[in-house]
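Bumping with the actual sequence this time:
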Amino acid sequence: MAALLNIRKTMILKETLYAEAGRTANRPVVRAAALAVIENPFAGRFVEDLSPLFDLGLELGEKLMGEVAGLLSGPATSYGKAAIVGVAGDFEHGGALVHPKLGKPMRAAVGGGEAVIGSAVKVAAPGTMIDVPLGHKDNSWSFDHFDTWTMAIPDAPRPHEVVVIMAVADGGRLNARCGKGRAVL
């Protein structure tokens, strides 16, 4: 069964960070995200073969990632993804949307990406917040790029929906002091 991408709405976010902990950053960091509220074709029932959701993730990424990456002030250095599955769905529905194929259009939009794209998935009611993990696109050990961005949509996901989130940034945390050659035990 091929599932069709049925989008109820999208939200495009852009956040510019200028200061943290009372200190102005050397340069602002811009983060951008696409949040899409889609119908979950498998809500309310157990389905063994979730591969149609893999293709929906790919299609969604191809539809939205170019627009999101274009909002940054410089080249993307960090990325992350997440899904909030409505309560009639199950955790694996979110995983199937964000893991197998969503990464390909994300990597294309940021010009590569050697590192695994961090992700978070949960089953929850409308308005639930999720922390989208961000990490360096090429160096998974860049501590200065370990970050999260908390997001929610007040009326989503409804029980038979999934919120899929793709996020990018053109820098790491402001005034980061955990990396840059510091000793790691």
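The tokens above came from a reply further down the thread. The longest helix spans residues 51-69.
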